[in-house]
Amino acid sequence: MLIGVPKEIKVHEYRVGLTPSSVRELVMHGHEVLVETGAGAGIGATDALYQAAGAVIAGEGAEVFDRAQLIVKVKEPQAPERAMLRPEQILFTYLHLAPDPAQCADLVRSGAVCIAYETVTQPGGGLPLLAPMSEVAGRLSIQVGEHCLLRAQGGMGILLGGVPGVPPARVVILGAGVVGANAARMAVGSGAHVVVLDRNVDALRRLEQQFGARVVTVHAQQAAIEHQVLQADLVIGAVLVAGAAAPRLVTRDVVSRMKQGAVIVDVSIDQGGCVETSRVTTHAEPTYLVDGVVHYGVANMPGAVPRTSAYALNNVTLPFVLKVADLGWQAALRADPHLKDGLNVCRGRSPMPRWPMRWATPGSTPIRRSPETVGARPVAADVIALLERALAGHGAPKVRALHLPPTPWDGTKDGEFGALELDDGSLGLSYVLLDGALDALVAGAHGERLLGADALEVAHWWAAGDGVRRTVGFAAVNALTRHVFDRVGYAPPDAVDSIGGLDPQPGEHIGMVGFFPPLVKQVTARGARLTVLELKSELAGARDDFHITLDPAALEACDKVLSTSTVLLNDTLDAVLAHCRNARAFAMIGPGASCLPDPLFARGVTLMGGAWIEDAEGFKRALAAGTPWGRHARKFALERAIYTGLDALIQARARRR
User: Would you list the DSSP string of 209-225?
Assistant: First the structure.
């Protein structure tokens, strides 16, 4: 992969996305690295050092953005940089979107894949790519706060540690996380009187165990916050709600009643600030006065110590950069759910973020349906229209063969599916037990019109026809989808499980469309409540640990819904989705769920998991013999959150030519 490192253009930002040692690691992994000239000057890394590590030096940032597949930065892209981003390009940097809707809008318009350092997680909780900068910012906050307390800087002229006979300054820290703990460490070392407030009693307990009586811990109720802030000489805003705007803990009224010459260092400013009077400043003009109180609001505080910061940041970001470069972003996110938490914007949308963006409607609940799909034509027509557009100018392959399982049906899952083969070898699966389709096809129904036919014409059978024709037409759609994906060089990522990645949790209410006994245990064993929607009245009723109903309205109460592609064959998808408005996820799985997903994602489906046949000859032999054919295929999963869209795949192929 070609990785680009532009020079940071934010005011007084001297850090760099990759250090020379990180470049060397990437080059050793077979990647190319393009570094803008002078990008590392702020940390003492010359162009010659980068070249010695194996990088190529670019004359300007525009060249880096134009050529690189993966852009690695430090700070959020500024407006000129956002204008240079393009579809399919990967951006890996701090974003801090919560207080910055303009940036989010630009990133969405760019079509780029934007992964934010600050929302990447780690096992057991925590934000590993934010932690080192939080450590730097926490320690630096006391250093800059002490500087701001100097009379020449507008402060009250007080020394943090005092001197014999003169009491020390009172430092109040709002937040006991990484920033707050590191600020407390520095403040204690200076000899100041230190008070830390937090709502997390465990975090306060850790500080007390670490510092003993040198730190006073206070539970952060609003009255306590106001009391402590009004007594403070230096206030450190160290509040973080991951991915969201910082809560406003200190009002303008409280600021107006603070000591004259007191100082506020709002480290939370990159998430909007926790003080009502805070606003973003720069290293060039870091402070301003409100009611006689000095405010420091530099959003990139660690940029003041770029050597320490850049190397500390690279220590934790490099493994993730390597993972994205080695695997590609989709496979990397599939392999690492913690890295996936960092995905903030993807191919024109902000995908179901785990983090609550307070300035925008949260995308995690409920499932979203594009307005143009409400009351629109059947999904079959939309999928076929998309195939027609994808095949325009190329033509559709012909039908080579129809492969069916032995009859009568032996009761196994493998015996429920047939496959249509195209003359390029593409295979498309379809469920063949609906409306007696298997017996009719074995008897030769429609066979005289099938072999040698244009596959796109056969695909139209899905949109208009009886049960048998719909079955065959759907197989043709799935085969053409495989044909199109192969032509653009796209292979969907592996599925993580057999239940659409729904990850049922104790207390959650899961809906299942159709009764699939092998999947029931996977849901109920995790302590989730299960409701199954069925068409067969003889199945209805309560079971030991789940309930089967004939009423689709029962899905209204479900948190997540699991379905198979049968709802596509019997044209009930839209009716089912109409009852899933409150669900956070709708996963469609099974061997037949292999059609172009774009129209389904627009309707509200959040994941499609199908079968990707890798050994066609072995599959055909096993299907004809009635033996399990699963080993000749792999289960894949396409998530709406990270699927780039067919148009983007076609454009990417055109650029590779």
Answer: HHHGGGEEEEE--HHHH
